[in-house]
Amino acid sequence: MKKITFLMMIVFLSSFFFNAFSQEMKDVCPFAPTSTPIVADNGDLLWDELFSFNVTFDGEQGVAFADDAFWTAKWQTDGMIRKYDKTTMLKNDSFLLTPTVVGIRDFAYDGTYLYGGNNTSALYKIDLTAHTSTSVTLTGATIRHCTYDPTAYSNAGGFWAGAWANLKLYPKAGGAATVTAPAPTSCYGSAFDGQTTGGPYLWLFCQTATGTPAGSALVDLVQYNIASNTYTGTVHNCSNVSGVVNDLSAIAGGCESTYDTYAPGKLVIIGNVQQTPNRVFGLELVDWGGVGIKENQKNENLAVWPSPAMVNSTINMISTSNITNVKVYNTIGQIVYNENMNKHEVNISTNNFAAGTYIINVIKDDGMVTKKIVVK
């Protein structure tokens, strides 16, 4: 009898420790963030706060939005990649990469894969489904921040990357930098902006000295003009974001942008403030068309069809007023069609379009209209 009881106890304890170990490896969050998530959209205003929420731990510095979810990377100790639900903003999955990568500080996203830098010259390509990573070498780099630029190298794509005090452009396949920007100030994250008028730009999430009022959190988004290789002087202080500790203890973290994925028709800058616990936020930077404020479309007088359209077919549009320019963007901000004109009817061939969602920006004599269309 004692032997049976002993064996039953062994089975029970084994089951208990196995489940506990599985829970630890899975790292599924059974509780809500320690501060209530905030989801708000006050219209189509520049720097409108769209969301703000606490992640589970300190040190989850890298942040991005991909595959309809938020992702963070814990640079300290475990190297865990964590997934947060878009709606509830609760952590619902996490995993370690194979092979394991520790120390990722910032993410980039090319529309298919995440990429992360861990303070070395290696940029890790992350498959979110297979939980695997491969790497390319950015020669001479120390990657604390990174972002993907789809317009670089004649639209072949490239990465802007660097450490706290440098910023360089590298080919997507790796190798030596071809552009060196003026030194930023304490840069922790970077994000590409292909939509704001006068761009393309980068936004660098920096620990600078422009906090207002004095003594507030010095977590600033700093604008860099890619074409002119200069900082524009435009700086947005993020100390008023909901949930950010508004004092000198808050530190800038990872940063990324998302086009038409978190919010249709919007370019959103996602930032991660290092505090206890880290705070993730999203700010609306611009609506499609690069104007910062959405155009009034109640009397747009523009018809676009069919939707969905087919690959190797035609997208048609007709307007009661004269059309002067049409641009078509894919979901990572690349311009796939751009034509100036003076006519009321436009036909766009989809022969060179891949299947997916596109944003059509139409400038007319009486204003601008933005449309979304799907190509299958």
Class of the largest domain in CATH? Mainly Beta
Average pLDDT rating: 82
Helical element count?
2
Low-pLDDT stretches are 1-35, 288-299
CATH-level-4 superfamily name of the largest domain: Hemopexin-like domain
Structural class: mainly beta
User: Which range does the strand content fall in?
Assistant: over 45%
- How many distinct folded domains? 2
Q: How is the main sheet built?
A: 5 strands, antiparallel
User: Roughly how much helix do the residues carry, as a percent range?
Assistant: under 10%
Radius of gyration: 23 Å
Total beta strand runs: 26
CATH topology term of the largest domain: Hemopexin
**SSE succession:** HEEEEEEEEEEEHEEEEEEEEEEEEEEE
CATH architecture level-2 label of the largest domain: 4 Propeller
The first-to-last residue Cα distance is 69 Å
In summary, what is this structure?
The protein has 2 helices and 26 strands. By secondary structure, the protein is mainly beta.
Explain what you see.
It contains two helices and 26 strands. The chain is mainly β. The protein folds into two domains: 261 residues, Hemopexin-like domain (Hemopexin, 4 Propeller), CATH 2.110.10; 74 residues, Immunoglobulin-like (Sandwich). The strands form six sheets. Strands 1-2-21-20-19 form a five-stranded antiparallel sheet, with no helix packed on it.
